[in-house]
Amino acid sequence: xxxxxxxxxxxxxxxxxxxxxxxxxxxxxxxxxxxxxxxxxxxxxxxxxxxxxxxxxxxxxxxxxxxxxxxxxxxxxxxxxxxxxxxxxxxxxxxxxxxxxxxxxxxxxxxxxxxxxxxxxxxxxxxxxxxxxxxxxxxxxxxxxxxxxxxxxxxxxxxxxxxxxxxxxxxxxxxxxxxxxxxxxxxxxxxxxxxxxxxxxxxxxxxxxxxxxxxxxxxxxxxxxxxxxxxxxxxxxxxxxxxxxxxxxxxxxxxxxxxxxxxxxxxxxxxxxxxxxxxxxxxxxxxxxxxxxxxxxxxxxxxxxxxxxxxxxxxxxxxxxxxxxxxxxxxxxxxxxxxxxxxxxxxxxxxxxxxxxxxxxxxxxxxxxxxxxxxx
Length: 376
Ligand SMILES: Cc1ncc(COP(=O)(O)O)c(C=O)c1O
Prior knowledge:
The chain is an alpha/beta fold. It is 40% helix and 15% strand. Helix 9 packs across helix 11. Pyridoxal-5'-phosphate binds at residues 59-61, 85-86, 88-89, 138, 164, 166-167, 192, 194, 206.
């Protein structure tokens, strides 16, 4: 019996009827770009997140790049982020014309360390001519970054904040006694709807969430050829709109997101019970942060042995990510060296993602845990 890392076919079965109705309506209206389905999804996702505006865009990468551009980040500016993330976070900074400045993560959360951020800003030895103008915290694996602490530091140093919530649809954090969704406390929160995400479409998609009307309008224009009217263009924009077909699929999936995330959290709790004391480090969920468990990652110096045992038992698994960005060839020109970010490097060497999706059965979870234990 093989155990899938991710089961998109099971998701599709749950949404089949609603998705069919959505697609039928789309074909009847032949409104394939823009149109009511896209507007409805933007409204519904904004309501779900609790923000005023959602702008659908072509991908999470587009969301990050357009957020920076719409906030006026450009050549000479520094943008602080972490090396323990997917390459798109840094690519967006470079593609906006700015310079990535890395700060290490907190090894307990794998997210941007507020302490390291403070120390970096205090030291004042910046890599960009203008110094940092923005920070991109990443909600890695679905655990929200400590956004209240990041926001306080950003305020002190006059930094804009763009939250990379591409892995954190529906995750929550408690701020001043109130639970709010990841991606809603920054100037802009960026989401990816890549198929494997907790809220994923049938191709590429993304969104930018904000409470800033001007930012939403500028980002929407940039995503649509800089348009002010059909053939009126105030700027050179991009063709980076969220595809209407994807918006229709996302409307169908959004209805299930809360249930699916609840099941992910139950699976995570079960993994915790079954793996307690096994010798591997289990993902932490500090008080006030509620992960949506995009991934369930454990850490162990014996990662490769566990992986071999999982592979031998036909159990899907993954490494997110095997090399931190500062050591990637794409980032070589930034001039970082091995040893610059020890926490990120250690996570890359030891991290292992176990199967995690809402349709995983309790028996499958028990089998995965038994194989992990056996390997240790
Ligand atoms: C942390 C993070 N940032 C950005 C992205 C980019 O999103 P997309 O693939 O939709 O461009 C991803 C997607 O995997 C991601 O995980």
